[in-house]
Amino acid sequence: MSENKFETVSSIVDSYQPNDEVFEELLNDAHLSSTWQRYHLMGDVMRGETSDVINLDLSAQIASAIAEETTILAPRTSNNMANKFKAKVVLFAKPFGQMAIAASAAGLMVIGVQQNTANNDAIIPASQVVKTMPFGGVAEPVSLNFQQASRTSEKQAFVEQQRRFQALLSDHQQQIKLSSVDVNKTPKKDKAEESAK
Amino acid sequence: MKLISSLLLLVTISTSVAANENEKAEPWLERLATSLKTLNFSTSFVVVKNNQAEPYHWFHGVDESGNELEILSLLNGPRRDVLRKQNIVSYIEPELPPFSVTSHQISGPIPAVLREDITELAQSYDFISVGRSRVLGRPAQLIRIVSKDPHRYGHWLWLDQKTGMLLKLALVNRAGQLLEQIQFTHLDITASLGESLQQLQQTTLPKVIEIPEGYQEQILQWQVKWLPSGFVRRNANRHRIASTKKPVEFMLFNDGLVDVSVYVNPSEDSQRATDYVMDGATVVLNQVVNGFEVSVVGKIPALTAKTIADSVVLIPKVTP
Fold first, then answer.
1. Neighboring chain B residues of A114 at a CB cutoff of 8 Å
2. Contact predicate B35/B163, CB 8 Å
3. What pTM was computed for the model?
4. Fewer Cβ within 10 Å of end Cβ, chain A: N or C?
5. B112 inside 8 A of chain A by CB
6. What is the complex's ipTM, to 2 decimals?
7. CA-to-CA distance for A59 and B106, rounded, in angstroms?
8. Could you tell me which residues come within 8 angstroms of residue A135 by beta carbon, excluding any fewer than 6 positions away?
């Protein structure tokens, strides 16, 4: 009988799925539990998975540590409904509050615009342009410095141009929003009506 | 002989079919307008341009008292939301403090005219029903809004056969090249208002900004002499461009479907060659002639923008 139980423990260690009763029995029997622990330890040693220091009663230590820990009172769940409701209401107010952060981020925003002229470099944020782009990757003779300088100014002109295009694009979109005010069926009528007002 | 007659028969059949499909385009667009105005929908779409994708959420609904509610949010990057309660539209964006305007349409990636009576476009565009295909897992009808002249792009619309809703929108040039497209990725049509729209009902929108009377009808020094037919001036003012603080004379034109902005301002350079960039289908063109910078922005071909820019002239002072 007892021999049989040890065999059961052994087969559970080997990932055999027993029924709940057998498990219950195993958990309640201190002797069988320690057997379970030992079998695992044996397995670990044979597979070379043990750490340098084998701590045999780790589980006991953890159990006592948990027992000694002060109890933390969980927050009452009845408040949750109110919180949820509040969160929903705040949801739309939030974007307004985030404006300041968003505004500072706006400075960094670059809408990808593709350059259509011969100067077809990748789109680079303004701050990086001057320092990074290598000019061909070959050390250039001093006599070519003049050309290099002109290329740099070309780059600056390119950045300046990108900025200009970006400004125009966002202003265009802004003006459309403001111009859609009092829209009527046809723009012509709209115009007539506005002058009539 | 038989062969010729059968061929003739085939030709007549195919032309009559084409004619039939022509007739069918307008009802489809009318149905789209009705759907956009009356349905409670929750949908997501992606604007694809410059090898980038901008995802949006779009909610629309009509409440018990018949007021339209609408939310359009950009999901990537800094928050950009557009909220609409019937005829008040609020823009929440990183560049500016939130503001509202009195309008019954939001300005976003989807042309507002699709909600309206499209017959006003008939002057400049043809409507063609092309055929069926499958979009967003649904059977869809492809309708093309094709410019009558070469100065504009075409809009291709894929509409849900069941609900008439927009499933895909593409901007295509004359050569049939795709410039920009909006692909819907999800569409839910419900009987009642969605949760977000119910929240919007409870939300107080930012204050409506007052646009001074006549502000958008100012008399400017500069004039655009040429525009493709059908473009009407919608705005003319002097303002400073927000990011550069440069004062400009500004004009906005619209042909019902497309907006074109023209800017004129003095420049430090005396001459600068014409240059332009494309942001999807939107061209930004810029040139300096005799110390004046002229810029044109809009969803039009670069050549059209160039012709518009070249046509800008100083209004001659009245001399006896």
1. 50, 277-279
2. yes
3. 0.65
4. N
5. yes
6. 0.87
7. 64
8. A148, A151
